[in-house]
Amino acid sequence: MNTALGTALITGASSGIGAVYADRMARRGHDLILVARNRERLEAVAERITRETGRSVQVLTADLGRAEDLRRVERVLREKEDISVLVNNAGFGAVAPLVDSDADSMESMIALNVTALTRLTYAFAPAAASRGGGTVINIGSIVAVVPELLNGVYGASKAFVLALSQSLHHELGEKGLKVQVVLPGATATDFWEIAGHPVENLPKEWVMDADDMVDAALTGLDDGELVTIPGLPDVALWDAYQSARQTLSGNLSSSRPAERYLRTPAH
Ligand code: NAP
Description:
By secondary structure, this protein is of the alpha/beta class. Helices cover 46% and strands 13% of the residues.
């Protein structure tokens, strides 16, 4: 069996988008390490993929919100040099307004969506780049650019994923690390039930099938995109947004306050 493509480690692979990534990565010729909390569901995904593709699939049960479990997965990423792809997909969201949400639950969201994703990236990306390559796929969300849409901490966590991915590409892209951040819109998975708003309650024309979403994202990866938004019909809109950001970036820091602030403040 050809393992030249190396192993893909996918978090949140027991259901939804992560399980589709597992399937597609195996069909592309990768062996797999699948990470999530629910062993039974992980093993069912692994068994089906092995049967259908013949690839080697290892299951790693871990709660990435718990420090000791996270460190265990980091160790695997550091020690197994044949890992060539990291898919940071595990995450959860909420639809409840920011101010009505429980701070402990928001902290758990940050632990998974931000801290775990960051630590796994650190465990993989610099070493992969020094080996001459590797791919990091980070699953963000369209709420990264529209934090008003769902719960604000969820939006902020995905804005972090977008910014981290852009920075990672900036620092390691030229050293051979391929970075992609995917910003899915509403996708038909358990996410919505867990977030407190069953997917059936959304307008059908908003909701993409998880298979279609991942296939589109992988096409974007093959095209070398840094940011892929599967549901965005006209990519020129994103390009204009990025171009406005570039224009801003040269104008944000100055030794003098801007003219509009140069009046005596009222006391
Ligand atoms: P999902 O079906 O609920 O999948 C979430 C996955 O993450 C599951 O495999 C779950 O497995 C795993 N997970 C949750 N908590 C975990 C923890 N503490 N430690 C380890 N694994 C954990 O939802 P999904 O839609 O596929 O979500 C995947 C990603 O897509 C998330 O980052 C989400 O924010 C993003 N996304 C989703 C949508 C959407 O509309 N569905 C849109 C934009 C972005 P276990 O329960 O077995 O741990």
